[in-house]
Amino acid sequence: MTPSLAARRPFGGLARRPFGGLARRPFGRLARCLGTALLALAAAACGTSDEEVLQIGCPDVRILRDAAEVTHFRPGGGTDLTDVVSRARLADISGSCEVGDDGTLVTFLVDLIAERGPALRGDQDTYRYFVALIGPGRTPLAKEVFETTVTFPPNEPIAGSEEELEQWLPLPGEVNPADHQVLLGFQLARGQLDFNRDLVGAAGGRAAR
């Protein structure tokens, strides 16, 4: 079966599927233990045995650094501060996985935080982000792109949304879910990706001084 990426659901309205005797394991607490969503590494630091990780390990859920932020510039303008429509970033993943004999259900929350720019006209901007499933050997298995619109309250520079998603991995019992990755990031054009990398490079240069 092909792994499926479930459509984003409004926060608070998630329809749980009846899976019977699934073993549910949170990865949000373990993620905070090391600042990542890598259960296999976090489990050792938080006191979980290697044997247990092999039996019930959650997939590695993470935000790609180069795609963690996006800057929207006004059409036809430059890339100066006055041309910025808005900026947004993905942050603070938490959630859980439910492991059964025929697969694993990963449910996770990620915060999308947006900042109003001087070139914004109106009170809304729309952002596109992806969720991708990567198998062993970094093999791409599935990818889906979602859109979310953020509304800025009057006279407020910051707004955001909490995105709740499900990922169903139809994995047989002998396959360890921890050998898979669920990757998130903004769907970026080439110029936006280069802009992000230039910012990271500039920040690294300042830190090295």
What does the radius of gyration come to? 19 Å
SS elements, strand count: 10
Helix vs. strand class: alpha+beta
- Note the run of SSEs as H and E: EEHHHEEEEEEEEH
Q: Oligomeric form of this entry?
A: single chain
Helix content: 10-25%
Q: Helical stretch count?
A: 4
Write down the overall geometry. elongated
Cα separation of the termini? 52 Å
Strand residue content? 35-45%
What number is the mean pLDDT? 74
Low-confidence stretches: 5-55, 205-209
The profile of the biggest β sheet is: 6 strands, antiparallel
- How many independent structural domains? 1
Describe the structure.
The protein has 209 residues and is an alpha+beta fold. It has one domain. It is 20% helix and 43% strand. Strands 1, 2, 4, 5, 6 and 9 form a 6-stranded antiparallel sheet that branches. A 4-stranded mixed sheet has the order 3-10-7-8, with no helix packed on it. 28% of the residues are buried.
Q: Gist?
A:
With 209 residues, the chain is an alpha+beta fold.
Name some characteristics of this structure.
disordered C terminus; 4 helices; alpha+beta; six-stranded antiparallel β-sheet; 209 residues
Question: Helices and strands in order, then pairings?
Answer:
Elements: E1 4-5, E2 23-26, H1 28-34, H2 39-46, H3 50-56, E3 60-63, E4 69-73, E5 84-100, E6 103-116, E7 124-135, E8 139-151, E9 158-169, E10 181-186, H4 190-208
Parallel strand pairs: 3-10
Antiparallel strand pairs: 1-9, 2-5, 4-5, 5-6, 6-9, 7-8, 7-10
Helix pairs in contact: 1-2
